[in-house]
Amino acid sequence: MVSPKSLYINNEWIEGKGDSFESLNPATEESIWKGRFADFYQVDTAVNLARRSFEMWSRRPQSIRTRYVEIIREKIESRSEELAEAVSKETGKALWETRLEVKGLLSKIDITMDATKERCSDKEIDGDGCKYVLKHKAHGVMAVLGPFNFPVHLPHGHIIPAILAGNTVVFKPSELTPMSGQLLMDIYSDAKLPDGVINMVQGSGSVGEALSQHRGVAGILFTGSSKTGHRLSKEFAQEPKILALEMGGNNPLVVSEIDDIDAAVYGIIRSAFITSGQRCTCARRLILVDNAQTDDLLKKLVIATKNIKIGAYDEDVFCGPVISKHARDTLLTWQDNLIAQGGEPLVKMEASEKGYFLSPGIIEVSKINGLADEEYFGPLLQVFLVRNIADAIMLANNTNYGLAAGLFSKHEFEFVHFYDFIRAGIINWNSPTTGASGRLPFGGVGHSGNFRPSAYYAPDYCAYPTASTQSEYLKLPKSLLPGIEI
Question: Which positions are catalytic?
């Protein structure tokens, strides 16, 4: 797909004036989209036009903004299969998974409308001769920087609450998924929002930097790597910009005494290898409390992992390729390093001859001293053996990250103890680490976030509360303060 007009600014499609780039299908390595980056002046234009639209859009009644979002939802639903197929081609994810992504996007829109109504509605309290009023105001232009792994679902965790609150948006998709971003904006164009409410610029990190650094941007809503997120945090620490960071994690999954070994194996595979391990909530560390079940669990896990079906598009494959050649090669290098340090490969990742496929790998690393605190963003699972649940919790917390953590155990008291002492934003019991509800907050601590959780709490960073004491008449009180005569 050649796209001479890959930018969407002020409800118009225009051609980028920056470097040319392309998107490759990671399953076939074939080019499926070509376009051009936005240059600095086009980023500047997008922000300025979004700023110009902000005053009009923020003053629209909430009911009008909500109706536009309902129309967006209707348009997305009507083209859901087209979206799912595009995302599958561009990310390599199985079609069943991209269909779930689009379904999840529709649910996210519904939930966000509910959350906005609940968390940002006006309130009045009667006072003594006055009333106290709570209202919320939008910030301005919000820059939304999207990821590659869920290119249509995750950006909407920011876009929808932002425009519902009255902000305008400039969206930059990942440079690895520009086709999915363009298709999204094509759907938005069908919804016929007012000019400048939603805009899109394409490009790599340099375009994201130009957008984030623009004086007209009031907030940066980012989903991606911890490295980029920390750079943004340092860069804007002294600036009055809203900064919401959704980043990754070196997520632990602890397995203690369980009722069903097969169910545990299935839960581990779902936690570690779904989306080829390219979810921020994927388990990177499997911590096994050594007991009579451990050997059987490991044997079954190894067999099940070797039998995972990998492919593209088919209905019956579990996972596809990783996103790029760079991602594949980096993961293989990480695996080699772990083995060189003394890790025991229970299952080795293997690369395919064509495409960026990697079979899932499992490395037992209990004997490695000074193990790096890395987020291996792919199908590579590290296994640790520990003596008891206290050691497991200590090891689980031995990370600078704090996104997701899980415990498989038949003992509720163990989970209560685990929950009390684990440091993470998502803490699951007998459920995969990759399971999270949109009706709850989503976010992490430490290197995983900056205490601005998204999902149900996203409206909180898209508008700020104002307090107002109001009285219809200005009256002199019956009793004046001491020292005043009128």
Answer: 246, 280
